[in-house]
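Margin note: ligand = WQD.
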Amino acid sequence: MKKILITGGAGYIGSHTAVELVNAGFEPIVLDDLSNSDSKVLNRLEEIVGKKIPFYQGDCNDLAVLDQIGKDHQLSGVIHFAAFKAVGESTQFPLDYYRNNIGSLVVLLEFMQKRGIKDLVFSSSCTVYGQPDQLPVTEDTPRKDAESPYGNTKKVCEDILVDFVKSKPDIRVISLRYFNPIGAHPSGKIGELPIGTPNNLVPFVTQTAAGIREKLTVFGNDYDTSDGSCVRDFIHVMDLADAHVKALSFLSKQNTDYYEVFNVGTGNGNTVLEVIETFQKVNGIKLNYQIGPRRPGDVVKIWADTQKINQVLGWYPKFSLEDSLRDSWNWQKNL
Ligand code: NAD
Ligand code: WQD
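Resulting structure:
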C-alpha cells in the first residue's frame, strides 16, 4: 500500500482527500499543526474510513518533524495542503503568509529530494488568474498580478515548482488550481470549520440558516452577469479530493521531472443568487439575506475550462450544486 504524506491533512480539503485516498487503496499519513483545524477531525476521519490514520502534530516548516515522518514511514508521495488561506488576513500579516506558505514548500521539497520521494501534488488556486480577460479559463490563460499576499504565495509557489523541476531533481509534480470548494462528506462527519466569522459564501449561508449569523449580505447585484451577482465555479470537496487521487495515480506513471498544472472546477459558473436559491430549494429553508455593496477586490466572474483534467487525468465531477449545498447544510446541522 503506497504511503502518502498529507500536510494540512486535518483541514477542510485535506481531511476529505484522506478519505478518498483510503478508498483508493493508499495509506495517508497526516501532518498538521492544527493552526486552523481541530484534532477531533482525526477521530471523525477514522470513523469514516474504519481504520487508524497516523497523525503527527507539527509544523511543515520544521525539517526535523518531516525527517521523523520519513524515518517512520516509507513515503511514495506528498500532497501539500498546509498553508494559511485567509485573503484579508494576508494583507495584514503578509510576512506570516510568505513564511508559512512559501517556506513550507521549500522545506518540503528539500525533504522530498533528500529522501527520494518522487511525487507531489500541490494546492494552488484559481486566484492566480485574477479577473481573466476570457472565460472559461484554461491552464494557458495568463496569470495576473496577485490581488493579495495570499494570492501571491500561490503564484510564487507555482514558480518555485517550475524552477525546481527544471533543475532535474528526479521529482514529478502536479499543481491543482482549485476553483471554489464547497460541500462536505456525505456522512456529515467532516466538513469546513471556519474559525470566527466566515469570509466565504457557503459557510456564511449555512451559519445564517443555522441562526449563528443574523443575515447574509450579497456583495453586489449590479455586476454585468445574468442576475447582477458574481459568478463562481463551485466544486464539491469530494470531487476535489478525487482529483488528488487521480493526480497521484497519474504521476506515478510519468517520467520524473514532470510538472503540469490542472484546473479543478466543474466547468460551470453559478451566480451568488443562484447559490442562495438552490440552497433554499434543496434544503427547504428560507434564508435571511439582503443585497449590499460590492466587496472590494472581488473577481466579477470566473469558471474553469476543465478539458485538460478531463482528458489527461480522466477526472470528471460527480456531484451537482444541489448535492454540495445539501451536504454543506447537513454538516452545519451536525456541528
Ligand atoms: P484549511 O485551513 O482547512 O486546511 C489547511 C490545514 O493546514 C489546516 O488544518 C492548518 O492547521 C494546517 N496548516 C497550516 N499551516 C501549517 C504548517 N505550517 N504546518 C502544518 N500544518 C499547517 O484550508 P483548506 O481550505 O483545506 O485549504 C487547503 C489548501 O488548499 C491550502 O493550501 C489553500 O490555500 C488551498 N486552497 C483552498 C481553497 C479554498 O477555498 N478552501 C481554494 C484554493 C486553494
Ligand atoms: C464567493 C462569492 C462574494 C460572502 C476566495 C478566495 C480565493 C479562493 C477561493 C483560495 C463572491 C460573494 C461571499 C458573503 C457574498 N481561495 N459573497 N456574501 O471570493 O471566489 O474567493 O475563495 O485560494 O483566493 O479569495 O470566494 O466564497 O469569498 O466568495 O455575497 O458573505 O460570494 O462577493 O462573489 P471567492 P468567496
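The longest strand covers residues 119-125.
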